Protein 1
Amino acid sequence: MILGEDARTLRRGLKVFGLSMGGPVLAALAAPQAFAQDAAVVAAGAYERMKPTPGKGMPVDDGLGLQAQYSPLGDYAQWIHDGVLMPIITVITLIVLGLLLWVMARYNRRFNPVPSKTSHNTFIEVIWTLVPVLILVGIAVPSIDLLAKQYKPAPEKALTVKVTGNQWFWTYTYPDNGGFEVMSYMLNLPGQPVVNNGVRELGTDPSDGPSHLEVDNRMVVPAGEPIRLQITASDVIHSFAVPSLWFKLDAVPGRINEKVLFIKEPGVYYGQCSELCGAKHGYMPIAVEALPRDKYNAWVLTQSGGAIDGQPAPAEAAAEGAPAATPTAAAPASSEAAPAASAAPAA
Ligand SMILES: [Cu+2]
């Protein structure tokens, strides 16, 4: 993994060096796309793994209610929860409690020895039928609207990321970026039995987030644009869920579930598999790293076979006569960082 990364850095360094020393104009004429990609990387700086903000995109101590939301649908859902459902529930509960107390105090045997024989009151019956109907309709309108918005397909040009649930890790494939694949395992916890063989321990990198939620390779995506997530599984049913992004969708073998992910701002957002999937179900967290577009592009180029979407893959650019240092992407290799035998049971 280290060797592979060094080789990639060296290759990219050579390329940039070659461009600056060997005449940028000539190089740009020969391979405008490769030049544009390098220029983008130089402008954005090298990719650096993002350090999560404490309390953002993760559960907090003594938290009540929903996690703070970082997607438009999440904001909408949070408004339904905090602005519609909770007030209605609170008011109804208080009214029912008040009625019960009133009946108990006023109409018990001591204070009301001769009960009324009234058995019908049309006016009251109409009221207590109509009011609940109106309340339910009032809840249904925003709720069905939210449901419809959640099913809205992604725009045609949206970036596609394929998410696959496996026992017990996630793989993220980037078909629009050269087809490379990232394997994502939970970090082992210091002083506790090894969960994933060959994976480093939590805390060995300054950018590590909360225990049980941090992974070796995160799902990196651009912020501020719709992303088409296609979700499936390779073995049993899993569920891809990130509470702070208002996202939960089942990962079913042999089937692709699709939903739009839109993250309002850069950050690291954590979730967990949410479908009981076997012995290590609790040890396959999800870490989503949302970056500004230029930083995302820089990350893509750190991946073997990575190509910026909408531009030809490095292999094609090389075929067009780019400098020899252009990385070849004959086979979009699965992540070199993948641990060798990490599916082995915990020690
Ligand atoms: Cu699972």
Note: The longest strand covers residues 159-166.
Protein 2
Amino acid sequence: MTYATILLQIGWKNMADVDDNPENIATCRQFCGPCPSFSFNGLNKLPPKMLFCARGASEKPKDQIKDKGCFCPGCDIFKKYDLSGGWFCIYAKEGRK
Ligand code: SF4
Ligand code: SF4
């Protein structure tokens, strides 16, 4: 039995990358949109603007983003893609550890 087979049998799975598509942008808008960290830090003014779990962290420097909480755990995409961590605008696709 290979190592990969063992991992599959114990439930390990390859995490899928979040698709950058209009449907996911619309969902993100419902969660990043009202997030207090998003509005307080003006994250919509700098690329990638939203969908940070797919596009990576904001171009706003990490040490200039004030953490006011994260709505990602309530987002349908977070559940659908089995994401973890959240705060993708700060910590990029890996999320907060
Ligand atoms: S998980 Fe967070 S960054 Fe990703 S779509 Fe949902 S609200 Fe946006
Ligand atoms: S990634 Fe999380 S913390 Fe950042 S704006 Fe979206 S919901 Fe808020």
Note: Residues 31-32, 35, 37-38, 43, 52, 70-72, 86-89 surround iron/sulfur cluster (ligand 2) (CB under 6 Å).
Protein 3
Amino acid sequence: MHKFVHLFKLGWAYKITKAVTLSYPPYQYTIEPTNQCNLGCDFCPQSDPEHEKLRPVGMLTSDNLQLFLERAKEAGSSNRNLNFTLDGEPFLNKEFISFIEMANRAGFFPRFATNGTMLDRDKIDRLIAAGPFLASIDFSSDLEIFEAIRGKPGHFAKLHENLLYLIEKSHTEPGVHLDIHDITSYAGYDPDRSLDRMRVLFPVNIPSRIKFDYRKFHSFCGHLKAKSDKSSYRLCPYPWIQMAIAHNGDCVACCRDTAGRSVLGNVFDDPIMTVWNNDKYRQFRQNLLDQRPNLNGACKDCDLPYADDPVRWKLKYMLHSLLGR
Ligand code: SF4
């Protein structure tokens, strides 16, 4: 299916007909290499002592990734981007670099979020050899704030060194794409000023594939308290756009549902279109259409349906964000 046809069908179902049975496959996939992490950052559900009890720790295997890639192709994916992100730190999965190679070989463009602390020069070189990728990495303008949020001393210097090496390699390696996010605003600092301060820690002349921004935090389905006006409900688009898959094949609500509060099917057991339109998925969408997010385990404490940000609900913003992802 052509990307624009795909987006047209998606927009038609979400905005116009409010369909719960979808005639198109997921536009966006995110699949989790592992739900294990080596950190417990304050803003992330990994810092919750109960988190591990909700979902036992496990790893995606190459065989299951291969099965998923075949099923995504069979479903007719129009979007080359494939996200390796949900819960956990991907480099804890020893096979992760080969996953990047497999995704590239299957015609996808792999993207992932990593805390970057497990990288070293050798791993970065092997990652680059596995093919093009986009890595999204959190950093900060301030050592003390960064290490207080992430809870481990020494990580600021190590990550700074890894980022400088990635940026150095990006001059000669066109497959290296980076989104470097400043997380200092989590501690209450002005995001724009902090971003300016972080930017000076890196060279000036760098390829446009290396981008800097500040992180916008959401509630992670209730892990963080969020200001919300419950009278201004908006329909969350995720169940019309994205399929988020845990390491064991379980499809959860979306990329925010790292604790697996809503499990809607399993793509290692069933074809993608079967899961995408099964009773659980359709009821999940219907609950959101009925303005009853409280009936969905993942959505009941999520801040997105009440997000007080008029820009994010504009069609232009949604289209721009979909084309970029
Ligand atoms: S309401 Fe929140 S938890 Fe539910 S699908 Fe949307 S973003 Fe995910």
Note: The chain has a mean pLDDT of 91.
